[in-house]
Amino acid sequence: MMYLVGLALIFLIVSVIFLRVYISSGTKCSLDRRLDGKVIIITGGNSGIGKAAALELAKRGARVIIGCRNKVKAEAAVTLIRRRTGSDAVHYLPLDLASLESVKQFVDMFIKQYGPAYALVNNAGYMGPKQMSHDRYDLCFQVNYLGHYYLTQLLIQKSKPDKSSPLRVINVVSDSYVNSLVDFDDIMIERNSYQVFDAYGRTKLALIWFSNELNYRYWDSAVTSVPIHPDSMLPPFAGLLEVQSVQTSYTIGQGLSGRVLRLMAKLFFRSPETGAQSIVHSALVGSLEDYIGKLVYDCKPIRLAAVAKDHRKAERLWDISWDMCPLEDLKMKIH
Ligand SMILES: NC(=O)c1ccc[n+]([C@@H]2O[C@H](COP(=O)([O-])OP(=O)(O)OC[C@H]3O[C@@H](n4cnc5c(N)ncnc54)[C@H](OP(=O)(O)O)[C@@H]3O)[C@@H](O)[C@H]2O)c1
């Protein structure tokens, strides 16, 4: 009997180790290129994958500007990244993607203080119950997609990247795009019932279309864009797992259940550092040519599902998004 219990125990331990190695492993970016002096914007760089990417990129010499809505959390992240990397070229600018006015102020401040960017990482995200943004749009749609669309468009129009000083736009998406659709007759999900995962997935599909359209419209390589999938962590937003001194509506409880969940996540799911590797890779790789029209996963370009390659829908969403943002005065709608 003891013999059987021992065997079962060994089997259990081996299975746990196997699961740990298999599930939580991921490719580490192996490129040793440096980005000294290159300016990189990361939205939502105060927690989770965005913070991990900011740290890695700062280590490699980049000037990292994190765009965040919470000053206290942003300053805490800047202090931590500076301390861990020894770089003082890490800064924060206020950015609330739920407000188009805030996005505009962010871009104005950024251009004034830092000039053109080398890369923009559209990382911030929201998934949750239906809410309205400041602009009366669906919050998930605006934070994940429209706010980033507007930010990118403004940055392009105001910093005018060209072949000699190009901009790379790295959109953080999710494989949930595969089963998603955008209902053009109900963009704000007012008629259909609001399903949290569907509402989230379609914003990631929209971001992939946006990447593809940027590459299509800036065929002269002034702007190149890739979507990256960081793989799944538990829960869907990595920052929830951080033990934070600043309590936000998102942070998982500090009690026993929170501790157990964090331990489980540490054991069996990817860390934000692993999730950030494809962002780091996309920023470091010499040319994105081989990655265009693909999804970056585990630092490699992989095929996109057919739904992501629908150019007509991507074009339609670009136009609708343009009209939803105060972009008209720039008179630079590119076709
Ligand atoms: N974790 C996963 O399993 C997973 C899988 C696939 C894709 N992703 C994607 O990876 C990205 C990062 O996720 P994460 O896991 O690192 O989650 P996270 O730690 O919760 O980070 C989300 C970030 O977005 C910011 N944010 C939310 N609403 C914002 C707003 N209105 N304006 C500006 N910033 C806002 C948050 O700021 P606050 O701290 O102020 O809330 C936070 O910095 C997201 O786009 C997510 O969809 C994650």
Automatic annotation (TrEMBL):
The keyword NADP does not apply. One of its GO terms (molecular function) is oxidoreductase activity. Pfam families: adh_short. Keywords: Oxidoreductase. InterPro entries: NAD(P)-bd_dom_sf (IPR036291), SDR_fam (IPR002347). This is Uncharacterized protein. It comes from Paralvinella palmiformis. The lineage of its organism: Eukaryota, Metazoa, Spiralia, Lophotrochozoa, Annelida.
